[in-house]
Amino acid sequence: MGAVRDPATGLEFYEIGHRWGHGVPSMPGDSDVILYRSVKHAQHGVMAHRIRMVMHSGTHLNAPIHLIQKGDGVGALPLDATFGNGVILDIPKGKWELVEVADLEAARPPIQDGDRVVIVTGWHRKFSDSLEYFGESPGLSKAAADWLVAKKVKLVAMDTPQIDHPLATSLGEHRGGPLMNRLAGNYRRETGREPKQDFPDWNIAHRTLLGAGIATVENVGGDVDGLLNRRATLHAAPWRWMEGDACVIRFVAIIDPTGAARIEPGNAA
Under CATH, domain 4-19+55-164+203-255 is a member of which superfamily? Predict the structure, then answer.
């Protein structure tokens, strides 16, 4: 879609989430998003939709309660967790690779304490209802999650279907799995390694972040390729749903062409 420019400030607004709706790729094991028009223009001159869905679809935000008992819900997150300055990082990764501490330390511009961090592995270009997108994606290592916690970041977003490596989730042979029956076997054949030895802990990176009160965003996409290695103001606000484990969001990056991330105070009329 490209940027929307504010004529008063020159700030540029970019979509960095995937389009959502009928046919959106859904996690293996989750029901599809179902939408239908319960009221239609031709019948009543007005339209209203009904929706049945799992909140973890498309570009969505996860609150601590998703994996942490008694954690905050999406509506209980502080406003500055989902709106404020941060960095969009180009960290290319391939099939079954991990984002490690060295990747975060080498990223430019550097991650600052209190940032909102968007990690772009390139996987958003594969966004689809496919074995590749869900089962072969990269993930964040436990050590990298610990490093981000130590940086006191406020939000971690990735362009992957899950924060963790897929074999550290129920897509593999962890609790409730495997939701992708061939995944563990494919990993054994291609790597000669045991998935449960390489990834012994279930959702460990994601639980580390959420356990520290750091919200996460999965399935980053949209125009993010044009914003790599830049600082931005990020807006990922979910519904004010106090008990919500997750929420589909419209994820926006605000770019200052002068090079400094800024939020204009505005002037009274």
Answer: Putative cyclase (3.50.30.50)
